From TrEMBL:
CDD domains, sorted: AdoMet_MTases
Descriptive protein name: O-methyltransferase
Short name of any one Pfam family annotated for the protein: Methyltransf_3
Record PANTHER family: O-METHYLTRANSFERASE RV1220C-RELATED (PTHR10509:SF85), O-METHYLTRANSFERASE-RELATED (PTHR10509)
Naturally occurring in which organism (per UniProt): Actinoplanes palleronii
Keywords, comma-separated and alphabetical: Methyltransferase, S-adenosyl-L-methionine, Transferase
InterPro entries attached to this UniProt entry: Cation-dep_OMT, SAM-dependent_MTases_sf, SAM_O-MeTrfase
Length: 202
């Protein structure tokens, strides 16, 4: 296991959330990737964060631990049952119910209802089919200097393989290329976990 993953120690609450995700067959971010989320939330003194893909709360805990003590995490997921678990996990991790706004629904239905320029950080851990729409929404939702983070940009190790022409890999390639070539973003790829694309809104 890479040093970045073993360096990011997880406490029993995170371990529980991770094992619940495993039981449900849900992928979740690695400890190394989680520590990057925590770092970026802390570096930006994030008060308002959007997470697309609640899961069982693993990434949410990492984000909340980096955010300001008065920060609110808005987390969106289509699976109500997963969010019920995440709500319990957040409370067990010591976060007051007011620190999270848990919204059930498709991200593409929910994001248009969120306020322009109101957010410090947006974490996209959604289906690759929604990457383009989510990154487009992020440009509207983030304040200047806000950070977009997209999970899974290594495409399971296929991102650099020219023979990989499956829909997911092609979609990820298009997303990372569009952000790299856009004048709206200052991006970098961080190789923790499944690969994180981080970009600061100019």
């Amino acid at each position: 296991m890479p040093f970045a993953e073993t360096y990011a120690a997880e406490d029993p609450i995170l371990q529980t959330a991770r094992s619940l995700a495993h039981e449900l067959g849900l992928p979740c971010i690695s400890p190394g990737a989680g520590s990057v989320l925590c770092l970026l939330a802390a570096a930006g003194n994030a008060k308002a964060v959007v997470e697309i893909g609640t899961g069982t709360g693993v990434s949410g805990i990492w984000l909340l631990r980096g955010m300001r003590p008065d920060g609110v995490l808005t987390t969106i997921d289509v699976e109500h049952e997963h969010q019920r678990i995440a709500r319990r996990v957040f409370v067990e991790a010591g976060f007051a119910p007011g620190r999270t706004r848990i919204i059930s629904g498709r991200s593409l239905d929910v994001l248009p209802r969120l306020a322009d320029g109101a957010y410090d950080l947006i974490f996209v851990d959604a289906d690759t089919t929604e990457f383009a729409a989510c990154t487009e929404a992020a440009l509207r939702l983030l304040r200047p200097g806000g950070v977009l983070i997209v999970n899974g940009v290594h495409a399971g190790g296929r991102i650099n393989d020219p023979a990989a022409r499956d829909v997911d890999t092609l979609t990820i390639r298009e997303t990372v290329k569009a952000i790299r070539e856009s004048e709206d973003w200052t991006p970098a790829v961080i190789s923790s976990g499944a690969g994180l694309l981080a970009a600061v809104k100019r």
